[in-house]
């Protein structure tokens, strides 16, 4: 008899690959953003200039400040050369990144269980899509667009997979590659994975630590001058105020980040309560990362330690939450199948308290439909534990994934991630204005610089991250809205909208701007200068420079 060329094991592996790819593509399309959005408005500028040196020659932010995502710039420059508009090339790159992210998540599921991996996987990624991957300080596992942290996240997920399987060489290389694309991850990987290694072996093993952390330390040594320079400042008080209170309170302000501690404590309790004895490394990874974040958040509440907030240690919280969620989904399915007993005693109490904290926190955060979904999830988990029915667990996982994809079905049918939504004014500026023109724009027009491919005086979306340069940016923003100080970004918007024609012309002259852009729905000022462009929302005045 002729042996089949493809055996059952091969078919199973092909099914896994197909499901992971289809899931990655589906979620990338469903939750993808248009090209040139959010953080891309800042992070794509360096790569764009490397591909098009003729752009932004008169832009203060681009030419007179340090850009620290160097590796990302080298990666994105060829994408701009292949696709000058960017939408198609970056859309494809985002698809690849999402597939790689989901493949690494499946790897962690596979490390947690040998049975029911696919159904657990689809449940976990469904939960992530509705907000389960978001943690304190605006951190998350993945977004709908390509950015440096997306590549660093892939590196961390691959490293977690390798470390759980005790493959230190692969873990070390993955951490280093992720750190090259985002230095913050390189700094945090040394601490987090070092603690994980110490927690497992309960002793200091220099050889193992060197293999695991050596590549990341090498990355840090190479970029050490940049790290040191970014921390130097002649006005530390003002620099920290601008960073923590003014521009990034959601990321760095102690009172903001501690609001999410309940959720972290909840997932910590869940991971402790359902931890399996034969998956020590996976459980320890969750506990170490979550504990590290909780300690860091508590430390920055102490005034003299505020500068610790620049470490952005809570960036690693989503990784610990992910592993805790995987452990939860795996435990629920095993209980439903009768492969493990129901939790009893303090395990049951810890699970109930942890779930309650997660649900409570869900209703205190403005992210729909997360509160309702997480409540239904915890109720379904409780039913599964009580009734021990495999069908409930399967419906829970499959239904969650189906729900989040169905709610975004219009994006799947007509993906926005391959679009470049240029507004009328940015399209005009890109195609009709001189390439060396400088635009004085409303500070809240953060997308103008990238979409129009033109220099601007200032906006509040793209501040430098070197502390001295951040102070210069703040002072430049104050000057652009004709104010000595600003209490918040909203204060800057209000002052801009209240500027008189004389103020606007004086500011434009101070910064050698060629054009003034006004939002007619918010700013009532009208200039006597020639109108270069006008539509229902914007008017652009030419100053003849």
Describe this entry's structure for a reader.
With 545 residues, the protein is mainly α. It has 2 domains: 335 residues, no CATH class; 119 residues, no CATH class. It is 64% helix and 3% strand. The chain has 27 helices and 5 strands. Strands 2-1-3-5-4 form a 5-stranded mixed β-sheet. Helix 6 crosses helix 7, helix 9 packs antiparallel against helix 10 and helix 16 runs parallel beside helix 18. The mean pLDDT is 91.
Walk across the major sheet and give the strand order. 2-1-3-5-4
Q: What is the number of helices? A: 27
Radius of gyration: 25 Å
Strand content: under 5%
Mean pLDDT: 91
> How many β-strand stretches?
5
Main sheet summary: 5 strands, mixed
Going by helix content, strand content and strand pairing, the class is: mainly alpha
């Amino acid at each position: 008899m002729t042996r089949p060329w493809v055996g059952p094991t091969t078919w199973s592996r092909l099914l896994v690959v197909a499901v992971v790819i289809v899931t990655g593509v589906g979620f990338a399309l469903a939750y993808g953003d248009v090209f040139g959005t959010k953080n891309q408005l800042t992070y794509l500028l360096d790569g764009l200039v490397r591909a098009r040196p003729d752009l932004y020659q008169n832009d203060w932010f681009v030419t007179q400040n340090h850009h620290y995502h160097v590796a990302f710039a080298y990666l994105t420059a060829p994408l701009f050369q292949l696709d000058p508009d960017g939408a198609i090339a970056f859309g494809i790159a985002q698809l690849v990144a999402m597939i790689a992210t989901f493949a690494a998540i499946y790897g962690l599921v596979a490390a947690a269980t040998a049975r029911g991996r696919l159904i657990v996987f689809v449940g976990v990624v469904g939960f992530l899509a509705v907000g389960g991957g978001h943690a304190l300080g605006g951190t998350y596992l993945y977004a709908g667009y390509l950015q440096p942290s997306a590549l660093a996240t892939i590196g961390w997920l691959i490293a977690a997979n390798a470390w759980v399987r005790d493959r230190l060489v692969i873990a070390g290389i993955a951490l280093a590659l992720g750190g090259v694309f985002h230095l913050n991850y390189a700094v945090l990987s040394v601490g987090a994975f070092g603690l994980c290694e110490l927690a497992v072996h309960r002793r200091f093993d220099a050889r193992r630590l060197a293999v695991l952390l050596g590549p990341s330390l090498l990355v840090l040594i190479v970029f050490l001058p940049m790290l040191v320079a970014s921390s130097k400042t002649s006005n530390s008080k003002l620099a920290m105020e601008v960073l923590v209170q003014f521009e990034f309170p959601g990321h760095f302000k102690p009172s903001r980040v501690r609001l999410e501690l309940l959720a972290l404590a909840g997932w910590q309790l869940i991971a402790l309560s359902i931890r399996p004895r034969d998956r020590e490394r996976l459980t320890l990874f969750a506990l170490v990362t979550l504990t590290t974040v909780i300690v860091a958040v508590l430390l920055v509440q102490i005034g003299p330690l505020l500068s610790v907030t620049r470490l952005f240690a809570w960036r690693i919280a989503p990784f610990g939450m992910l592993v805790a969620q995987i452990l939860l989904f795996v435990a629920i399915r095993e209980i439903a199948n009768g492969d493990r007993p129901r939790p009893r005693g303090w395990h049951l109490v810890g699970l109930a308290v942890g779930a309650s904290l997660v649900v409570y926190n869900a209703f205190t955060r403005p992210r729909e439909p997360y509160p309702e979904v997480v409540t239904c999830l915890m109720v379904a988990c409780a039913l599964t534990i009580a009734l021990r029915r495999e069908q409930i667990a399967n419906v829970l996982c499959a239904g969650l994934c189906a729900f989040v994809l169905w709610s975004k079905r219009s994006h799947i049918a007509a993906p926005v991630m391959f679009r470049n939504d240029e507004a009328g004014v940015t399209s005009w500026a890109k195609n009709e204005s001189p390439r060396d023109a400088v635009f004085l724009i409303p500070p809240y027009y953060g997308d103008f610089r990238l979409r129009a491919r033109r220099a601007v005086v200032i906006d509040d979306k793209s501040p430098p991250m070197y502390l001295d340069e951040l102070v210069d940016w703040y002072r430049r923003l104050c000057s652009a809205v004709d104010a000595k100080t600003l209490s918040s970004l909203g204060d800057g918007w209000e002052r801009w909208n209240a500027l008189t024609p004389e103020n606007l012309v004086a500011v434009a002259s101070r910064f050698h701007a060629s054009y003034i852009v006004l939002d007619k729905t918010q700013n009532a000022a009208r200039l006597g200068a020639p109108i270069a462009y006008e539509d229902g929302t914007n008017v652009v005045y030419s100053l003849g420079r």
